[in-house]
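[Protein data]
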Amino acid sequence: MPRPELLEQIYTIVDQIPAGRVTTYGRVAAMTEGATPRMVGSAMRHLPDGHQLPWHRVIAASRKLADHGGAERQYQKLRNEGVVFDSKGRVPTHLVWPD
């Protein structure tokens, strides 16, 4: 797990991702003071119970959903927000935040 101050930065960034948009683990990491994409993934896997963070808006650099146990739930949450996927399962680049 990332250090507490990095966790706070990661969670603050993820909380800012607008509905209907996505960002990547790497983009979140680049906005912090030292987190790696892997640390961002770890932070998303270990969210505290009752959190309100839009974890589902963080995806892989390939613009596909990472292969994890919550992938189907993530897909449904994104679809419910209007996120579309192409025939290869990728989110279009115009939906990646920030612009």
In short: The chain has a mean pLDDT of 96. The chain is about 35% helix and 5% strand. The longest strand covers residues 23-24.
